[in-house]
Structures are given as C-alpha cells and as structure tokens.
Write a structure and sequence with these properties.
heterodimer; A: 464 residues; mainly alpha; two-stranded antiparallel ribbon; 23 helices; 4 strands; B: 415 residues; alpha/beta; Alkaline Phosphatase, subunit A; 2 domains; 9-stranded mixed sheet; 3-stranded antiparallel sheet; 32% helix; 13% strand
C-alpha cells in the first residue's frame, strides 16, 4: 500500500511506471466507457498530461448529438408513460456518442447512489428530470445535489415523500437519506429517522415540479443528531452534510466506483480525501480529478480491480468495434446481464463488483458479445462489423488480426496461452466445411467475427 | 461500519475454491443413511419476500380490536379473513394457501418470528437473515455453510437485475444462478459442429486454464475464470434437460410462478436438485398498500397461488413428501399504519413452511399488540430456531455450527 501522500499525488511516468497503452486503456475504462483504437493511439502518443486533461475535461458535444438527444427526450417523444426500455435506450445512446464520457459515467454513479426506479415512479418525465439533475451536478457539488434530491419529483414518488402527512409521517425517505445517500448505517439512530421523517412532510409535486406546502408541513421542533430546531427537509439534508461521516461515506463509495471493487482502503487513505472534499464544499469534480490523476489510480491496486458493469461491457464493446448498435435491443439485452438503467433493483442500487457475474449473467455477456459481433443477428442488424474494423485498420494475417483485437480490447495484456488458442482457432477455422455458396470473403468475415467474439469472452475482458 | 460491505465483496471471492458444480459430481447425490433426517432426498425451496412483508396483514389477528385501531384504513375485515384458528386467519388473497392448509394439511405457520434488537434497515436485516448471525461483518450465508457440510445440488433461480444472495455465499462451489433454461446456453457462431466445438474449446479452455486453485489473496481474475468454468459446465449439463415440461397443474402467470415452475422442472429432471433459492420483490409497502385488495394483496396472491401450484404439481409427481417450501422476509412492518396508508419498517412477522411433511397448523403466539416495542411487534420465535429445524430435521445437517448455540429447533415438521 502506498502511503497516503504518495497515493494521491499526481502520477508521473517513471521507469517502473511508464505511460503506455495499458494505462490509457485503464483510464478510458474507468473515466468513461472504454477507448477506441484511435483514442488508445492518441493517448500513448500525447502522453499522460494531455490525455488526462482530455479525458477529464471532455470536449463540447456535437450540435446534432445534443439536438437529437434533446428531441428524443422531449415530451412528445418521451411522454410520461413511455416504456422503460425507451428511457434506458436513450441514455445508452448518450453513452455511446458523448464527447464527455466522464460526465455520463459520473451521472451513472449518482444514479446508482440515489437509485430510483421507474418500476415504481412510472413516469418517464420524472426519471428524465432526475437524470438531468444528476448530470448537472455529476461533477459539481454533492451538497447541492443532496439538497435538490429532497424535492426531486421522481424521488418524491420513489420514497413516498409526497404521500407523507404531518399526522403520521412516512419514514421512507428519512431512512434512506441517512442509510444510503449521506451517512451509511451506524451513524444515526432510529430516533433520528423518526424525527427527520417529520421534517419531510409537506412536500408535493406541482405541475411536474417539487414544491413545499408549509401548511402540510410539520413545523414543530425536531431533534436530529442531537441538534434541535424546527427543521425542514432541506435542513435535515444540511445536517447530514455537516455530519463527519458524510464526506467519508461518499469518498469510499467513489473509491469503489473509480478504483477498486475489492480493495478496502484504510482510513489513512480515505480521510485526507474526505477532508478535502468537505473543505471544497463537496466539489465532486475536484475529487474525481484527484483520484483519476493519482499514483494510486495508475498502480496495481486499481488495475483490473473491477468487474465491468453490464453497461460498461456493452457500451465499451460497441464503441471499440466502431459500430452502431440499436440501443433498444441493447437495453433489452442488458436486462439479461443484470442492469436496467432507470430501474435499479432496489434503493441500494446495484451491488456491483463480483455480484455482476453469475452463471446466467455471464452467459448473457457471452451471448450479447456474439450478437454484437455477428452480422446476422436480427436484433442488432449488421452495424457492428469486426471484419470491416480489421480491414479499416489494415490488419494482415491471423497474427495481425489477433494482435489488433487483443491490443484494442485488452491492450495486449493476456496470457500467451490465450493468444495461442485464438490463433489455433483461426487456423482450424480454415479447415471448416463452409456452405458451398460462401465466397472467400464470407469465410474471412466469419473468421473475423468469430475470433472477435472469442476475445470478448476472455476472462480479462470481464474486468475493468 | 462503512467497511462491512467491502468485506462482503471480498468474501464473495473466497467463497468457492472448487469449480465443478455439485450436481455434476455423483457423490452429491448420495443420500444419508436411511434412518437419518434428510434420507429421502428432501428438497428445500427458500422463498424470500423482499422489502419487508407486512406480516400482520398476512396472518391476521382478526379478533383483536387493537388490530383495527392501529390500522384504520388498511385492516382486513373479519368476515374476509381466511380463518386458520379462532384468532388468526390468512389474508383473503391467500385463499389457495388456505386450501392447502385446510384440505391438504400441508401448511405450517410460524407466528412472530424475528431476532433480538432487530435492525430496521432492509439491507442489514436481510444480511442478518441470510447469514443467520448478527456479527458486524457477515460474510457467509446459512445455506452456503449448509452446503459445506453436505454438498447437495443447489440453484438460485434469479430474476433479471437480481444478484446471487448472501445466503448462498460460502458454499464450496458457487451456486449457479439461472433465469431461464432457454437462455442458459453458451452460444457460438460456429457454422458446423466442428466449428462450434472449436469455438467452445477456446472459450472453455481459456477459462479452465485460469481457474487455478485459490490463493490466499482473492483475485478478481481467478473469480471470473472460476465462475466461467462453473457456468460452462452447468450449462452443458442443463442443456440435456427437456424443454417440454408439462406441469400437473397450471402455474399462475407471474414471476414467482415461473421460478417455481423452473424449480419443479429441475426437481423432475433427476439431476439430484435439492436446494432452491427464489425471491419476490415489492413488499416495501410504505404507501398505498391496500387492505383486502390492492398492492399488498396482489403480492400475497402471487405468493399463495405460485406456492400452491408448485406443491400440487410436485404432489402430482409423487414428490410432496420430499418438499419443503419456506418463506421469510427481512422484517415485518410497523403495527400502526402511517399517513400514506402504508406501513413503515417493523420487526417480527410470520413464516410459512409448506410441504407434505410439515407439522400442519399454526405454531407460536401472535405477537401482542399491547406489548409493542417502539411501535413494532416483538418476536416470540427466533428465526434461527426455524433454520435449526430445517437444517437438523429436514436436510439432516447439524445446525449448531451454522446458527450458533441456544436455538432450539422449532416444531415445524411432522416427524
């Protein structure tokens, strides 16, 4: 373990920690949804400083992307009753095309954090509103996000704040605010929850927006965390932000998201960041920048220390293939992999880490990889074409193809035996009795598709 | 405290050293000596009601005036309750289960189940039930530990979006999660049998090469490789199971119905399947839960109809005496309703055991409505007493090392 000072100090390349393709791939996976071949090449060529700036700052979105995405999110195309999968597909489209993947990635972090499901909210407008709230604060101030979440219409429905009454307050939001959104279990009492629940009364939705109705609010004195006052919901959120557990709770969660699923960082590593986070007024952008630029982030502690989420797996694959997948079928396929956007399994979000992979979801990944690389899958059309990708990058011969694909998807970091098996397959595939009407090109396409699929099933490719 | 979940994550990696699913090994099928409990290849199906089932509107104390006072809008009227005893009865949506109770003597209701100092966090309380313990860090499940003692073939029948439960963690071999047999296949683009085999050979060969014995340091790559090897072997085995399962009775068209139907199919497939884990979510009824009809009623109907169909299907195949379905939830709900016409998180609640060999009837007392603790029902039976019975008397596995000392088995089985 690096000492905290060194750990969070900015990474600079050294003899034993060179800036290379593996580090570019690592950065693009964590700060976004994976790199294309061109991004990997540019990242190596431009060096760590320029690449980090590029990834952290992003680029302005293309005008037609913004226009199309906004149109697709308009009330006309996405009415309140729009089906779940259309919402999910809409976000996947943004992830695939955005020029600032880090912002979408952090929005996904907050979606997992404030996990709200349209399965209960049943209102695409509200879900989009919450998405916009999270996106606008994704790299902004958590303090503002936490306060705003208390009057977010989707959240007001999701955790029943709108149905709570001052005569018999509903504890749902108060509990999850403390347990899951701000502090973590063990940092509050049941009495704190019951008192705070009184503060979250009088909130309603008016013309699609969260509103405060003073007459329906319990204006009496409450005692929360040992402090007394005639608190409103906003006051409770601020009391949570003032609680010493709050910055540590968020920093730990972000550590898991950006650095490692399995490493349990000691307090000495978390506390300096938590203190900085609090002092900065919960500036998430600054925190994310510190982490992504750090020695620790580019150390073995972080490298391949996460299981890709289904969204990362799917979006990363399509991006690297330089293809266009139908986002509706993609959204549908992701359900079988265990991640439906705008519909997390519970208010705790997705467990993530090793929980992403079980027998069914693993087969789901393999079979989605097959569907995306196959030119024949009816759902995805022929818009991901590995043969065209290989040709476009001028690869030659079996070794050239395998090395290009391993370089693209895994930056060449796989055991020699795995590479050997892929080459053996390409060799064996020359001897297969193909249908008589197949041309030489058909056979070449088939081999390219098949070997690409096989690369995507490698154990290393399941890791981020 | 904040690191508890992190420990959990790490332990998931350590949970299984071997890689071959239990139902592939012949030894797994060996039954214990004939005079021992569990001798007859008993089957356990755990049904998790996720979110905190409102026990008081499930097994209803319909003669208790306090019940109606505490719940002015969501109480179920006396004349609608499906009476089990003079004092308690089932919610009217559970008529199918009530019929199993009266006509088949196949239902045991354990009232007032919980544990001391109950947590009202969904996630903490669920972990307590899964791990059968209240230590701060919970890394292994009660069923995972049971599987260590006897590696009976087990399946987690998962819905989409549903991770493998902590209850099964710690098993020597990871319990496969299956959503549908149709999707439980490793597909390739092979154009001929040889091409398919060559492709599968690469996929499984790479996984096998990586699935090395566990080292002390959990490593994500080992975890992936072992999960792959385990999965490919399971999928190969299950590919042989016939697609055309015809149940003896129709199953309801519901999520739980489909899962239990799949369980019946696997039981019938003669692969020695003996342990199943299924969940149904939606019980977190903070608002608008309804009374005799409504959201909670619909959930109870789904539970009752699916379990009833499952029991009758297996009974039709001669398996009813092998079967025990056990339901549980992480907690019950607050005795009094809130202003949202729902109920907040509570404590004690009933469990159901269904099967040909359960001790039919209602055991335990309904928790007192006069003696609430902070508005919550106080448990009379510790859930680990029910686990102890299931382990000792049903699966024939020594319960003590799993649930701990001092939990006398609840009397829930006929013999």
């Amino acid at each position: 373990m690096l000492d905290p000072k060194t750990a969070w100090a900015p990474y600079t390349p050294g003899a034993d920690t060179p800036w290379d393709r593996k580090k570019v791939g690592h950065l693009y996976r964590r700060a976004g949804f994976g790199a294309t071949a061109a991004e990997l090449d540019a990242g190596v060529k431009d060096g760590h400083a320029r690449t980090l700036d590029r990834v952290l700052n992003g680029a302005p979105e293309a005008e037609d992307f913004t226009r199309t995405s906004e149109f697709m999110a308009s009330e006309r195309s996405m009415p309140p009753g729009a089906p779940q999968q259309r919402l999910s597909a809409w976000w996947l489209d943004r992830m695939l095309k955005t020029r600032h993947p880090l912002r979408e990635k952090l929005t996904l972090f907050w979606h997992d954090h404030f996990a709200t499901s349209n399965a209960k909210v049943q209102n695409a407008r509200f879900m989009l509103g919450q998405y916009r709230l999270m996106r606008s604060h994704a790299l902004g101030r958590f303090a503002e996000l936490l306060v705003a979440m208390g009057t977010d219409p989707a959240m007001l429905v999701w955790l029943d704040t709108i149905t709570s009454t001052k005569s018999a307050p509903n504890e749902n939001y108060a509990r999850e605010l403390m347990e899951l959104f701000a502090l973590g279990i063990g940092n509050y009492t049941e009495a704190d929850i019951r008192q705070a629940a009184r503060a979250f009364t009088g909130y309603e939705i008016k013309e699609g927006k969260g509103a405060f109705n003073r007459r329906a609010h319990d204006a009496g004195e409450k005692t929360v965390f040992g402090k007394s006052g005639t608190f409103t919901g906003e006051d409770i959120a601020r009391l949570c932000l003032d609680h010493p557990a709050c910055p540590r709770f968020i920093v730990r969660k972000l550590y898991k998201f950006l650095v490692s699923d399995t490493d349990v960082p000691p307090a000495e590593l978390i506390d300096p960041l938590a203190e900085e986070y609090r002092e900065s007024g919960f500036d998430t952008g600054k925190l994310v920048s510190t982490v992504l630029r750090s020695n620790l982030f580019f150390s073995p502690t972080a490298y391949r220390a996460k299981i890709k989420s289904p969204v990362e797996f799917a979006v990363g694959t399509v991006r690297a293939l330089e293809g266009h997948a139908g986002t509706l079928p993609l959204a549908e396929a992701l359900e079988g992999l265990g991640q439906v956007l705008f519909a997390p399994p519970s208010v705790k979000g997705w467990d993530g880490g090793p929980a992403w992979l079980n027998a069914q979801t693993l087969l789901g990944r393999n079979n989605l990889a097959l569907a995306l690389t196959s030119t024949e899958d009816a759902r995805f059309g022929s818009r991901c074409d590995p043969a065209a990708l290989l040709a476009g990058h001028g690869t030659k011969g079996d070794e050239g193809q395998v090395d290009f694909l391993l370089g693209l998807f895994l930056q060449g970091d796989v055991p020699a035996a795995a590479r050997g098996k892929l080459l053996d397959y390409l060799k064996a595939a020359k001897g297969v009795k193909y249908p008589a009407y197949w041309s030489a090109d058909d056979v070449a396409n088939h081999r390219a598709r098949a070997v690409t699929h096989l690369v995507l099933t490698l154990p290393e490719y399941q890791l981020s | 405290m904040s690191t508890r979940r992190d420990f959990l994550r790490t332990s998931t990696l350590l949970g299984f050293g071997a890689t071959v699913p239990t139902f592939l090994g012949r030894t797994a099928l060996a039954a214990p000596a004939a005079d021992k409990p569990g001798a007859k290849d008993t089957v356990l199906v755990v049904v998790q009601l996720t979110g905190g089932n409102d026990g008081m509107n499930t097994v209803i104390p319909f003669t208790n005036a306090d019940y109606y006072k505490l719940r002015p809008t969501i109480a179920v009227a006396k004349d609608q309750v499906k009476k089990l005893t003079d004092d308690v009865g089932l919610h009217p949506a559970m008529s199918a289960l009530a019929r199993l109770y009266t006509d088949e003597s196949a239902v045991c209701v354990v009232q007032g189940v919980g544990y001391p100092n109950p947590s009202q966090s969904h996630f903490r309380s669920m972990d307590v039930w899964h791990a059968a313990g209240t230590a701060e860090t919970l890394t292994e499940g009660w069923l995972g530990n049971a599987l260590k003692k006897r590696g009976v073939p087990a399946f987690h029948l998962a819905g989409g979006n549903e991770a493998s439960p902590l209850a099964l963690a710690g098993a020597p071999v990871r319990v496969p999660s299956i959503t549908s047999l149709d999707d439980f296949k490793l597909k390739t683009s092979g154009v001929t049998g040889a091409d398919q085999n060559a492709q599968k050979g690469v996929i499984t060969g790479v996984a096998d090469a990586g699935a090395v014995p566990m080292t002390s340091q959990p490593n994500l790559l080992d975890f992936v490789s072992r999960t792959q090897t385990n999965t490919y072997a399971s999928s190969e085995k299950l590919a042989s199971i016939g697609k055309n399962y015809t149940p003896k009775v129709p199953y309801p068209n519901s999520a739980l119905g489909s899962k239990l139907k799949l369980a019946a199919q696997l039981i019938d497939a003669d692969i020695g399947a003996r342990l199943f884990y299924v969940s149904l979510d939606g019980f977190d009824t903070h608002a608008g839960q309804g009374g005799a009809a409504g959201a909670h009623a619909n959930l109870l109907a789904q539970v009752s109809d699916a379990i009833s169909a499952f029991y009758r299907d297996l009974a039709g195949r001669g398996h009813k005496d092998r079967l025990c379905v056990m339901t549980f939830s992480e907690f019950g709900r607050r005795a009094y309703e809130n202003g949202s016409k729902g109920t907040d998180h509570g404590a004690a609640a009933p469990m159901f055991l269904v099967g040909g060999n359960v001790k039919a009837g209602v055991t335990g007392e309904h928790p007192s409505l006069k003696g609430l603790k902070e508005g919550n029902l106080v448990h009379g039976t510790d859930f680990r007493q029910v686990y102890a019975a299931v382990l000792d008397k049903w699966l024939g596995i020594d319960a003590k090392p799993i649930v701990g000392e001092g939990f006398k088995a609840a009397e829930v089985f006929a013999k």
